[in-house]
Amino acid sequence: MIGISTRRWLAAALVLGAGLAGTVGVGCSDDDFLLPRQDAGAVADAGVVADTGADAPIPSLYQRLGGKENIARVVHLIVVAELKDAQIAGYFTPVGQSGHPTAEQIEACLTIQLSGFTGSRETPAYPARPADTKGWQCRSMADAHRGLGITDAVFTKFITIAAGVLKSNGVSDADIKTIGDILGTTRSEIVPKALPDGGAPPADAADND
């Protein structure tokens, strides 16, 4: 879904039951995410932080999230949270099997995607190169999710879970809305137009980023 891509990850988190839970370290706490918690009202809107003077540069969303290192941490926490949902976890059973990315590779793809979405100038452009994503070639959202049968309701659930992780780790409401809006632009690539809500994932499930 970050991409967030999501039967594979971002449905991606995006993060995720059975097939992936054993591969991703699940024992994470808020202390693992080092973004300083923002005071209420510190962000006037999604693109502007509190006024610190006429000449002060306005940090990008990427900078406010703490850069690639912190984005990688929050991607991991999101993936863990997503996998706790049995419905979403069902899309990730093949993760790590032959021809499918590992959990680490999925998180690398999602980190690069979310870094780019939020304004990084130092991260390679998604889908990047295998060297940047631990040997796995990331794909477009449409290619990554083709045939997975992700419903609109599952996509919305994925975004909601991710937003909760961001909120609990000190990201402002304005920045969460911006990230949600950005991820929402991938909905048409991930959710088949003709698929009604309530559909089950195909038997071969996740192919992922």
Question: What would your notes on this structure say?
Answer:
- It is built from 9 helices and 2 strands.
- It is mainly α.
- The chain has one domain (1-22, 59-209): Globin-like.
- Mean pLDDT is 75; it is low at 1-52.
- A two-stranded antiparallel sheet has the order 1-2.
- It starts with 17 loop residues before the first helix and ends in a 19-residue tail after the last helix.
- It is globular.
Task: Quickly list its features.
single chain; 209 residues; mainly alpha; two-stranded antiparallel sheet
Instruction: Please describe the biggest sheet, giving its number of strands, its sense, and whether it closes into a barrel.
Output: 2 strands, antiparallel
Overall mean confidence score, pLDDT: 75
Order of helices and strands: HEEHHHHHHHH
CATH topology: Globin-like
Lateral strand order in the biggest sheet: 1-2
The helix content, as a percent range, equals: 25-40%
Gyration radius (Cα, Å) is 16 Å
**Assembly category:** single chain
Poorly predicted runs of 5 or more residues: 1-52
What is the domain total for the residues? Answer: 1
C-alpha termini separation: 9 Å
Describe how the helices and strands are arranged.
Layout: H1 18-21, E1 43-45, E2 48-49, H2 61-64, H3 67-83, H4 86-89, H5 103-117, H6 141-145, H7 152-168, H8 173-184, H9 187-190
Antiparallel strand pairs: 1-2
Helix pairs in contact: 3-5, 3-7, 7-8
Brief summary:
With 209 residues, the protein is mainly alpha-helical. The chain is built from 9 helices and 2 strands; from the N terminus they run αββαααααααα. It has one domain (1-22, 59-209): Globin-like (Orthogonal Bundle), CATH 1.10.490.10.
